[in-house]
Specification:
183 residues, mainly alpha, 9 helices
């Protein structure tokens, strides 16, 4: 994570015409890994994650001059990554004529065959439990539990109140606990 001052300097350079390519390379190296795991937690598949991540950075490059700085730069990046992931999942569910919940369960079932997945049986059970949550609870749980984001940061990314996020996280953890107890 970079400081607020470093972020302002990076943004100023990104929005100037002089050194945009150098600044953009810096932006990619700063956020590539974090955004990869954010997307991966949503779509589960490595190749799909790489494709979405590439789309995110293309969108950022094309729209960086329009960024007003109303939120933190990383919040804006996460919001784009979240929206791109949701769009991808919605399109995939529609393509296969299944619900998002059914798609989520299928994606988790495909994890074991994924050569990039390094989780064990306990982690697979956790992923199965997460897959059964409504999409919003999945997002909140993944951001809070796996990425250890603060409610304030999640609030900026998902553009919702901290109170609603706390309630979603609480409900998600209760449902996951119940699933793991009964499974």
């Amino acid at each position: 994570m970079i400081t607020q001052e470093e972020e302002k300097r990076l943004l100023a350079t990104l929005q100037s015409d002089k050194e945009i390519n150098t600044a953009f390379s810096q932006l990619v190296s700063l956020y590539k890994q974090r955004l990869y795991w954010h997307i991966r937690n949503m779509v589960k598949n490595h190749d799909d994650t790489d494709d979405i991540l590439q789309n995110v950075f293309i969108k950022v490059y094309k729209n960086i001059k329009k960024f007003k700085g109303d939120s933190k730069l990383y919040s804006w990046l996460y919001r784009i990554a979240t929206n791109e992931s949701i769009t991808f999942l919605n399109q995939k569910a529609k393509k296969y004529n299944i619900t998002n919940e059914e798609l989520s369960i299928q994606l988790v079932q495909n994890l074991e065959a994924d050569v990039y997945y390094e989780g064990d049986q306990i982690q697979l059970k956790l992923q199965n439990a997460i897959a059964l949550l409504p999409q919003k609870q999945q997002q909140v749980f993944n951001m809070k539990y796996f990425q250890e984001l603060k409610y304030k940061e999640i609030s900026e990314i998902l553009e919702t109140s901290e109170g609603a996020l706390k309630a979603s996280y609480h409900l998600a953890t209760k449902k996951i606990e119940e699933f793991l107890k009964n499974d």
